[in-house]
## 1
Amino acid sequence: MTTTESFRAPSRHTPQAVEVLRPLRTGAARSRADLARVTGLSPSTVASRVEDLIRLGHVVETGEGASRGGRRPRRLQIRGDAGLVGCVDLGVDRASFGLVDFSGALLAERHVALDVAEGPTAVLSASLAHLLDMLGELGETGHGRLSGLSVGVPGPVSSTTARIVSPSRMPGWNGVSVAEVVQREIDLPVVVNNDANLMAAGELVAEGDEAVPADQVFVKVGSGIGCGIVSRGELYTGSNGWAGDISHVTVPGATAVPCSCGRTGCLDALASGNALVREMQLAGHDVSTVEAMIDLARDAHPLATGLLRGAGVMTGGVLATIVNFFNPDRLVLGGVLADSDVFVAGVRSTLWADCLPMATDQLTVEVTRHQGSGGLRGAGRVFLDQVFSVRGLA
């Protein structure tokens, strides 16, 4: 499989262009007048930079906006049809695929069962096949408008090498470069990140004129537990990509349950979906999925309810330290356990009990707005952040 000659990697943008692109992408500005107000640049400077971006094919005028007393401004937006990002959100036993245009809109999505234990070559080849099939469903021939891939994995990813490092639920993936595997089949740029980080980035995708909180903590509570951090409106991954990894924080006073990291009493070993299902099975209940356990709790099953609430309390206790330290505007829960009201109540009650009042004064605790698609939206956002940057695509 080879790349169509119609694809050209976007040029690296100048700092001056990025200064204009950023507020257009986030929705902070929708016209030249807005850009002048948000950036503090003169109207003539804004007009010149916008015209350059229109010529490059990244910005387009879309009609007239509302008047504020003078001439109606021309509305501006990122040109969506400039390209498509193939987005992959891998889980332990399922996967999601999406196509995101250059404006950040999710045009198509697909969710399938896929066992990550089949190994990187088989899983990533199947992922690419799904994306190309989805392109065909959109009426695209070949992959001419596919500008690259953005892949999320349920394990740690080094921000310096882009390789997967010691994943606890991805046998055969340690040390793997997702980009290298994918590029054996298709010669396109590939960005890879931890799935919780991408879900956190998905919370930055604005809808309409809503304001997006600048400081957020996103917690993925599914078969495993992960966390992503947003600081000042940007995904924060730390010096080498491990920022926000709460899965191996020891729960104070917890049972000494062995963890894949070699220690005992880690949050992931006690409060993850896999851990809760194991506890149900040890108690003699025929439960094989977290979803089935949540259904039992909705029917007031005492053990399922108690385990879910206990998991919420343990998760909230770990998050209380993060909230006290980081003081975010918003804490977001995603993943299958976020569908359990009992679990969410346990997190909330513990946060308010264990945090300083000043840390929770402005804090909102919510379930993600994009359950099921947040990772895809975030994958598109992270890829496009590189496209519309000074660095560009590597």
## 2
Amino acid sequence: MSGAAFALLAAAVVLAAFVQGASGLGFALICTPVIGIVRPDLVPVTTLVLMIPLNAYIAWRGRRHIDLGGSGWITLGRVPATLGGLALLAVVPAAKLNLLVGAATVLAALASFAAPAFTPGKATLLGVGAVTGIVETATGVGGPPYALAYQHRPAAELRATVALCFLVGEIVSLAVLFATGRVHAEQLDASLLLFPALVVGAGASHFVHHRVSGPRVRVGVLGFALASGLALLVKV
């Protein structure tokens, strides 16, 4: 990896970790399109690996605010759907993965912008988990369905609950990718190199997360995601 490529990825990780730590979503939406442009061979493994320690930290920090019932239903839908994401990886050529990532990012951002306020029931939460299981395993981008379910809940509840759902799902996705030989040393090396940037961004979020209101950050994250996804589609 060239110095310029690493610097760009590190900057994206710092920003993404800060945004997710402050708002509860945004890491994959910010990072994955940038990784897809610079080093598409690192998608989705590097994103998934970096999100595990990040979401473990966010979930632990906000553990008092976790919606255990909602996260349970999401996980129940999320785990079996991981195989659907694996199937997508099997049928989509590596050269077309950027197209899948870009389209998933743009559609998810638009859906999040347009979604009206609602209170999700068990069926909705199961569906959110299933969609996330497929899309996140295949592309590394899984936050928008969670955002749709919790976007109108208190910010502390959104951050902590989404982090727990992410954490469980990412572990499952990586386990499946490992078992099927889709995780390579270079992807893990990149994750290790980018880990200090993750720590910087997550650490900075600690000082502002309690002051951040959901709506403003949500609009900013989704706007960046939309731009990044469109840039990835143009590159394709």
